[in-house]
User: Fold this.
Amino acid sequence: MNMSRLLCDNLCPSPESEETTPPATEPPENQPPSSSVVSRCGPVPDNQRVRSHTLSATQRRQRQAYQAYESQVYNLTLDNNELRQQIRQLLERRDLHVTRMLLNGERFESDVLKLVWNLLDTLRSGAVGLTPSARGFFSSRSHISQRDPEASGGVHQFVMQQGPSSFKNRSFTVESIRVLAMVDSTTPGEEAREIRRVCNDRGGCVVEILVHFSGRMTRETFVALFPHILSDETLVSRLIGKQIEFSSRLLLYFNLQRRLMQQVAQADIVAALNALHLGDPSEFAALAHVDHRTDEYTSWL
Assistant:
């Protein structure tokens, strides 16, 4: 019995011995060997880079020179594009400035012609008969209104200062109205300097009005036009009531604020005197003493 028990104990291991026996470890298949050096990825310098075709020193110099040339060409291209853009912007600003000047000039010309037409209507209807509504037309923005403290020498003041017409049964026909000249501070020429002297240094415009006038002469006519013959009562009495016709030219100077600065009336007196058919040449010579005279008033209109 004892012998069989010993043999069975040797052949059949106990569970305690199985638990304590460590399993055999086998190395895994296809496992790469461990390495202590850690590989890192990074850029390789150009001089250490392996090429299939190595450049020679001459080729490298040529390549570097071409890169410098290409960089210069690229920078010049950028500068050229920037200059073109600046030129285009300047041209656009120039066109905008010219357009603005043209619009301002047309607006200024329209305002001045409107004032001229109202001046002619006032002269046609008579200065004394200027209604309050007609006075109010010359608004403050045009610097023509009498209520405007900055208005001096405006159309309304000029008409009221000159008084009523010196002719009876008068009538005049407007033949033409045009802007004779329009200047600014940069307009060259002697005529432009004269206009700036009358208006101001900033410039202004001159409006020319051609009219054909007819009316009967009164004593006020001789006071205004022929003051040198008032002492000859015989001649004056003969001429009072005669119908006279002549062509006249009225020049109106306006500054840039639409203010009337000066008015010049020119009349063809010689032609009007020839139409009277005076019998005595001495009387004609006395009247013709005012030949080619420029009058600084228009009260006789």
